[in-house]
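Bench notes, afternoon.
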Amino acid sequence: MTVELISVGTEILLGNIVNTNAAYLAEKCALLGLSCYHQSAVGDNEERLEDAIKLALSRSDIVILSGGLGPTKDDITKEVTAKVFGRGIKEDAHTKARIQEYFRQVHSGQITPNNWKQAMVPEGAIVVDNHNGTAPGLIIEENGKAAILLPGPPNEIKPMFERDIASYLNKLQPEGIYSKMVKICSVGESKAETMVADLMDAQTNPTLAPYAKTGEVHFRVTARAKSEEEAEQLMKPMVDELYKRFGDKIYTTEEEVTLEEAIVELLKEKNLLVTTAESCTGGLLAGRLLNVPGASSVYKEGYITYSNDAKERILGVKRETLMEYGAVSPQTAYEMAAGAAKAAGADAALSVTGIAGPGGGTKEKPVGLVYIGCCVKGNVRVEEFYFTGSRDKNRDYSVVRALTLLREELLKHHL
C-alpha cells in the first residue's frame, strides 16, 4: 500500500521550525511496509490544503496529515479534510470529557472557549485519544482510502503513533519491514562499500544499504516479512556474513547504541578507568564519553590543555618536546597521553592535539593535521590524521577517530 505525508503549518514553510514529524512518520511507515512516494508541506490556507489532500488521495491509499488540529482559527486541517470527504462536523462527547479532565489536571480547570473546537470531529471518523494533549487524532475511511489526522507537537504525535496508529496501519499492511543496523568503525566508507559490493549486487530480501556517518559506516539490513521472527531468520545469514568480513570492527548491531556507549561498556567489562587530554577538541571528546549514562564509573577526571604551559604544567609534557617538535606533533601527543594517565591515575588515556582551523596552519603543518595518542596500561600509540573539513568537522572527526583508536587498543590488549 502507498502512503503520502502532508505536514500542515505556515511555520514549516517559513523555516521557523524544523519538520521532524515528516522524517519520523516516513521512517515508521517504511518499517510497516508502506511505500511513500510523495511528501508535502502546506501552509494554513484552506484552498491550498484542500488541493493537497485531493491530490494525495488521488494517488495514494493512505494520507497522513500532521498539524493544524489545535484550538486556534488557523488550525483548519480537520475542517478541510472533512470537506474533502463530504462529511459534516459534530461534537464528540468522549473527547470533550477528556479535554475537560486534561485541563482539570494540568491547568486547574481553566478552559478558554476556543478549546472546545478540538472536541468537534468529522462525522463517522474514528477518534484516537491523545494521552499527551488535547487535540485527538482522527481517521476517516472511504472507498478503500484513509486519511489519518495527527496533532503537530512531536511529544503528542509520536506516542499516539506508537500506541494506536501503527497497529491500525499494520492491519492494512500485514507484511512489515524489519531491519538491523550493523555499525562499523576503523574502516573508511569507500573501503567498506567495496567489501560488500557483491552482497549489494545480489540482494533481494533482505537488502543491504550503507550509510556514512562521521568517522563511521553503518549498514542497514532490511527484510520484508510477516513477523519479526521470520525477518530475523531472513536477516541472520546477511549479518553473519558481515561479521565474517568486518570482524571486531563491528561494534554493535543495535540501532540505538552509539560508539561511545559501546566503548564505555567495554571499559566496564575490563574494569578500566579512562581519562582524556584535549587541545584542539576543547572538551568535545570528554563530552561524548560523559553523554553516556553510567560513564562516571569509568571516567573520573579529564584535562583541557589548550596552551603549551598547560600541557607542560598539568600533563608533564617536556618543555624540550614542545620547543623542538611543537604542540602539534606525535611526540607531544605521546607525552600528553602518558601524562594524562599518570595524572588521573587512569588505566587508559586519549590525547588530541591538532590544527582545527580555519587559521593557524603552515606548509609543514596544514589546517586539519591532528595527532591522537592512546595510552593503555603504559603502552602508547600515536596516529596522524589529515582532515579537510571546517573547524567543526575537523574537531568532530578527531573525536570519533580518538574513540575508535581507544576501542582498537582495548580490544588488542586482552586485559
